[in-house]
């Protein structure tokens, strides 16, 4: 039990918004990426957010691979798994953002 008398509950780290080029596997645990799906193959999607491209593994997540459309916009919530020389991104959530107004989004969030 905690100091307030309530039982401890596991809390998931928030997915912080990141440009692909700014992902730091030593500090980032979960990230949120918005970009265009440029390719998809064998349980993997490739996202380009304008700063870089990233391969994101969607295999095993509760994601309908058919719902992810090549050329469409998508928001991906992913875990960052550090490797020896780089990192791996594993999708937890993939949202179709094709109907989003990209210009308005850039105006609001930069």
Give a structural overview.
With 110 residues, this protein is mainly β. The chain has one helix and six strands; from the N terminus they run ββββββα. It has one helix at 102-109, and strands at residues 16-17, 30-41, 44-48, 53-57, 73-82, 87-96. A five-stranded mixed β-barrel has the order 2-3-4-6-5. The longest helix has 8 residues, at 102-109.
Give the structure's gist in a few sentences.
This protein is 7% helix and 40% strand.
Secondary structure elements and pairings:
Elements: E1 16-17, E2 30-41, E3 44-48, E4 53-57, E5 73-82, E6 87-96, H1 102-109
Parallel strand pairs: 1-2, 4-6
Antiparallel strand pairs: 2-3, 2-5, 3-4, 5-6
The total count of strands amounts to 6
| Percent strand | 35-45%
Which percent bin holds the helix content?
Answer: under 10%
Largest sheet: 5 strands, mixed, barrel
The geometry reads as globular
- The average pLDDT score comes to 86
Query: Distance between termini?
Result: 43 Å
Strand-pairing-aware structural class: mainly beta
Q: Strand arrangement, largest sheet? A: 2-3-4-6-5
How large, in whole angstroms, is the Cα Rg? Answer: 16 Å
| Poorly predicted sequence stretches spanning 5 or more consecutive residues | none
Number of helices: 1
What is the string of SSEs from the N terminus onward? EEEEEEH
Question: What would the keywords be for this entry?
Answer:
110 residues, mainly beta, 1 helix, 6 strands
């Amino acid at each position: 039990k905690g100091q307030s008398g309530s039982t401890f509950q596991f809390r998931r780290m928030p997915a912080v918004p990141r440009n692909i080029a700014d992902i730091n596997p030593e500090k980032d645990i979960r990230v949120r990426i918005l970009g265009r799906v440029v390719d998809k193959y064998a349980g993997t999607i490739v996202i380009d957010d304008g700063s870089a491209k990233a391969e994101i593994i969607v295999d095993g997540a509760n994601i309908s691979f058919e719902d992810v459309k090549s050329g469409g916009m998508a928001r991906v919530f992913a875990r960052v798994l550090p490797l020896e020389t780089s990192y791996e991104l594993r999708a937890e959530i993939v949202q179709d953002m094709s109907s989003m107004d990209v210009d308005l989004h850039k105006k609001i969030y930069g």
